[in-house]
Write a structure and sequence with these properties.
Strands 1, 2, 3, 4, 5 and 6 form a six-stranded antiparallel beta sheet that branches. This protein has one domain: Nuclear Transport Factor 2, Chain: A, CATH 3.10.450. The protein is of the alpha+beta class. A hairpin with a 2-residue loop joins strand 4 and strand 5.
């Protein structure tokens, strides 16, 4: 009987220390903050000081290779440190375990027809001097 109780206790301890597996399809909750932080790093590298006309989609499950992952699309007008230099940008973000894993240029119509909504939080981001 004592041996059974000891075995049960050890089994319970082993279960509680088992590593948790990541759920690749955890819905992102702080996706806007993660997008902004990622873009701020990119803006420093590309001499972007501000953006206007920013839009974003809600996270949506879509097929990526042979799996389903949450993705978002972001669209904005980037303004450079060089006066008069602007450019439209459209990016697609891929999430894993509820966190932004990649934010890359969208191509091949990846965001075509996406249900965009205003993203004023990104419009307010300012990097360096000369921001509007």
């Amino acid at each position: 009987m004592l041996l059974f109780a000891l075995a049960s206790t050890l089994a319970a301890c082993a279960d509680s220390k088992a590593p948790k597996t990541a759920d690749s399809n955890t819905i992102p909750t702080k996706y806007k903050d993660e997008v902004i932080e990622t873009l701020k790093e990119l803006f420093v590298k590309t001499d972007t000081v501000s953006v206007t006309g920013a839009f974003i989609t809600d996270p949506t499950l879509r097929p990526v290779d042979n799996e389903q992952h949450y993705t978002i699309c972001v669209r904005y007008m980037a303004h450079s440190t060089v006066p008069g230099v602007t450019g439209n940008a459209e990016r697609i973000g891929y999430f894993y375990n509820g966190h932004l894993n990649q934010l890359v240029e969208a191509d091949g119509g990846q965001c075509r027809g996406a249900p965009y909504k205003p993203f004023p939080e990104l419009d307010r981001v300012c990097i360096g001097t000369g921001c509007k």
